[in-house]
Amino acid sequence: MSNLGHLLLFFQTNLAMSFRFLYTHFSFRSKGKCLSLGIAVLSLQNLQSKPIAFEDACARASEVEQIDELSKMVEGANQARLAKASRFPNPSLYYERESARGTKAFDESTVGVSSKLDFLWKRGTRIESAEIRNSVSDLQIDLKRLKISYEIAKIFIKYSYLKEEIYILEEAIEQHNQVLIFSNELLAQGIIPALHLKRINLRVDELTFSHRALKSKMAGVLTRFRLWVGLNDVFPANHSLLYSVSLVSSEQAIQQALRERPDLLSLKANAKWKAKQVEQFQNEKFPEISLDIASKKYPEKQDGLFLGISLELPLGEKQGDLNLAKAAEVSGELEYQIKRKEIEREVKASWQIWHHLQRDQNHSSGNNDLESEQVFLSGLELSFKNGEISVFEYLDCLASFLTGKQNALKYSYEKQSAYLNLTYLSGLSPHFTLEKN
């Protein structure tokens, strides 16, 4: 328990310390054991967590952001707005009595009902305006959902990239530790000088620092992900990003964006709603017509029934409101046209970036190069152990091999990020295929 317990406590409390410090307290053989034990401690911590699929993560994030509650609130407001626009005018009941002072020769009373008739040509416009305004609210909810799926997808891609790069670095560190073990045996035989061990240790320190930096980034990504989904015991599951056939050209991507982008459709609906507002105020310029039906009682028990129509002339009362509505209509149309051009530019630029990365990957033979380099590296390892090449030459080959794998991994990450950005700008939700963790 003494050495192992001390070593375990060291990695749990101060993982950020340099392996150069470890080397001054332990032998080179303990150095490889320290790294493996540190990784084991972190792995045990990850075993307490469980993977979560992309769709489930988006659902959890929507719940944390209270999208469903917001949607219900918007739906309630939409129903209230539509009900208000659909209502009929309330009829007015009235009673009148007329008489002459000091005489009963003139004594009559009237009971009647009056109702406005302008709803016949105003109510339809009000309902259309309310429905368009409701669509604006619904599109804003859709935009929030699209934004959530985009942010979650970015985390999934970033997490997968960091996990793979950490694995690559751990392999490289293990390779260098093997070199260190074999070099120490050569040093004991007097074949190589102690300077060679110093060079290997410096390289291991460099790789270890990069490993710690990636672990810190991984912790930051995981923390942000858990805040999004509101769970502290999950991590992104292994997924592969699916590519849509509807984005095979920049023109198709632009048309897709013009059809699906919630922010653009919201501006378009808002401009249409402002045009309906102009139509409403134009209807207010027409006279208000009311129908009166009344029963009149005359002296000497004579009764009568009459119908009447009254007109109320606005005389320019709503002209100021109409002018303001027309100005708002022009402003809304300009906002829509400006946003449309902006979307066309950014979608075309995003498609060009992704197409460039996709074309270069199709024309390259990166995977074959890495496979052949792996075979070449195995041959170099044998040559190194046989004394045919020096430690420095072998370290240079390891460094070149590591750089090649890192570049290939980074290229794949940039391609996925570019396509994800393109799908978001085109108004599409990303889709993944679930892989075995």
Topology:
Blueprint: H1 2-13, H2 19-25, H3 28-47, E1 50-52, H4 54-64, H5 67-86, E2 92-99, E3 107-116, H6 119-188, H7 194-229, E4 234-236, E5 239-241, H8 250-260, H9 262-283, E6 288-298, E7 302-312, H10 319-363, H11 366-385, H12 391-425, E8 432-434
Parallel strand pairs: 1-4
Antiparallel strand pairs: 2-3, 3-6, 5-8, 6-7
Helix pairs in contact: 1-3, 3-6, 4-6, 5-6, 6-7, 6-9, 6-12, 8-10, 9-10, 10-12, 11-12
Notes on the structure:
The structure is a single chain. The chain is rod-shaped and about 140 Å long. With 437 residues, it is of the alpha+beta class. The chain folds into two domains: 1-48; 53-90 and 120-285 and 318-434, Up-down Bundle (Outer membrane efflux proteins (OEP)). Strand 6 and strand 7 (302-312) form a beta hairpin. Helix 1 packs across helix 3, helix 4 (54-64) crosses helix 6 and helix 8 packs antiparallel against helix 10. It has helices spanning 2-13, 19-25, 28-47, 54-64, 67-86, 119-188, 194-229, 250-260, 262-283, 319-363, 366-385, 391-425, and strands spanning 50-52, 92-99, 107-116, 234-236, 239-241, 288-298, 302-312, 432-434. The strands form three sheets. It has a four-stranded antiparallel β-sheet, with no helix packed on it. A two-stranded parallel ribbon has the order 1-4.
Instruction: Please identify the top-level CATH class of the largest domain.
Output: Mainly Alpha
Based on CA atoms alone, the radius of gyration comes out at 38 Å
Q: CATH topology of the largest domain, which one?
A: Outer membrane efflux proteins (OEP)
Instruction: Identify the strand order in the major beta sheet.
Output: 2-3-6-7
Q: Helical region count?
A: 12
List the helices and strands in order.
Answer: HHHEHHEEHHEEHHEEHHHE
Write down the overall mean pLDDT: 81
Domain tally: 2
Beginning-to-end CA distance, first to last residue: 33 Å
Summing up helix and strand content along with how strands pair, one would put the structural category as alpha+beta
The overall strand count is 8
Low-confidence blocks of residues: 1-42
